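In this notebook, the sequence line spells out the residues, with the fold written below as integer tokens. This is how one looks.
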Amino acid sequence: MAVRLDEIDRKILVELQEDASQSLDEIARKVNSSKTPVWNRIRKLREAGVIGRQTVILDPESLGLEACFFVLIRTSEHEADWQKKFLKALRERPEVLEAHRLAGDIDYILKVRVANARAYDKFYQALISEVRIYNVTALLSMEEIKATTILPIPEETPVQNA
């Protein structure tokens, strides 16, 4: 459900996405407001679910996680029990940064971060030992051209009724 945002809400969200560690005073100054109204807006945006958890972004290569694979999965299994087992296996694997169910020829795509090809093979062997998968294609990212967590904030946010 979309939430109606005004110009100040959008500015606050831009600031938080750029650097959530900024003080309320810094954000208030940048959006031309004062501390208390900014704090109240942030609280309301959290309550509305616009702002989720706050975290830090780590550099994977500095942690030795130099290989990024996109894993395309096709399955012939579509029963609820298989899906439950598959989703559980994905959620338990810290190497899986993202998982998406797709429309089209590929059923799922995973973004997997590991140290190297040997670590990917270990991940792959563990996954296929837990769930039956019809076909897996792993694509090694040669270069990350763009990666961001910053969402574009529309000028006009439609209001939807629940």
Q: What stands out?
A: The mean pLDDT is 94. The radius of gyration is 20 Å.
